[in-house]
Amino acid sequence: MTSSEPQPEFARGTSLWMDAWHRLRQNKVAVGSGIFLILMLLLCFVAAWFMADPNIQNLDNKFSSSSGAHWLGTDQMGRDLLSRILYGGQLSLVVGLTATAVAFCIGILYGAVSGYTGGRIDATMMRLVDVLYAIPFLVLIILLQQLFDAKAGEASAWIIEKLNIEKQTTQKTIRRISNVVPLLVAISALGWLTLARITRAQVLSMKQQEFTQAARSLGLSPMRILLRHIIPNTLGPSIVYVTLTVPGFIMYEATLSFLGLGIKAPNSSWGVLIKDGANFMETQPMLLILPGLFFTSTLFAFNFLGDGLRDALDPKAAKD
User: Which of 86, 133, 163, 199 is at a distance of 20 to 30 A from 18, taking alpha carbons?
Assistant: First the structure.
């Protein structure tokens, strides 16, 4: 071949993740949902810090309409409604995202170990999952939340006393965190069960494939095979499941808060605000409609994003 002859062009290889990202970008609804969720996070965790204190009361200005001082008006205590919605979104999103992250880690590791070891260990671990599945999820969350709630209050008081914290804002932050921790622990305690089953089913099929047998022939330890070769190949369906789990956990928080078993006053969450708005739905419907819009739109966005990820990571779609 002479230098004047044209050189052959070789197609650039692509990975599963690159193909999935390309298909996801073509899904306008999923992309729009992702952008909406980013904006919601920025509003709740950045813009909220520049808003008025959500707990400042002004009974002379209750149920006021929107104005320059209060963009969405005030509630029954004269508190700024927009500020309470954004600060409430912080707690709702923290509960949903943090509980999902904890459930993701536990479910992936538990299911991978169960599926890879097999035998009696696998049978025992899965029977434990079956037993936990037999317990009503919401009822057990309520019991665990009530159990840990008193301990969390004592722990926050102990931290403030031992560290001699006198600044009021720091004390409020510690109490706010301690109010969320019991709910996080209760939801995360059982939120990993379905993901563990999904991961186990994938590991059972992958541990017999050629790349796993090649790793064994090289003398790699089972833990290294799991962490470096098997678990990364199970992340696609797991990520899809996680995006669909976040709205479920946010819904559990809202349900418990609506029943008075979740976030405690003076803190607020979307569930607390919806509960308060329901008490005035006939005379002041905006107290229910506005937090309800933030709540439902966020749930829809997570579901649409999850559907888009499911389509993007579908192996059959990758062959088309």
Answer: 199
What pLDDT, in 10s, does the model give residues 187-222?
887 888 888 998 898 888 888 788 778 878 888 787
> Rounded CA gap, 57 and 192, in Å?
40
Separation CA 187–CA 175 (nearest Å): 19
297 touches 13 (CB < 8 A) = no
Block residue for tokens 């079956």: 130
User: If we measure between CA atoms, which residue out of 279, 282, 268 comes closest to residue 44?
Assistant: 268
Cβ contact 110:197 at 8 Å: no
The beta strand positions in 80-145, using DSSP E, are: none
* Residue burial 224-239, b: 16+ Cβ < 10 Å; e: rest: ebbeebbbeebbbbbb
Q: How many CA atoms lie less than 13 Å away from 68 in the CB half-sphere?
A: 0
Q: Rounded to an integer, what distance in angstroms lies between the CA atom of residue 80 and that of residue 58?
A: 9
Our measurement of the distance from residue 304's CA atom to the centroid of its chain's CA atoms, rounded to an integer in Å, reads 15
Report the candidate in 192, 189, 188, 195 with the shortest Cα–Cα distance to residue 237: 195
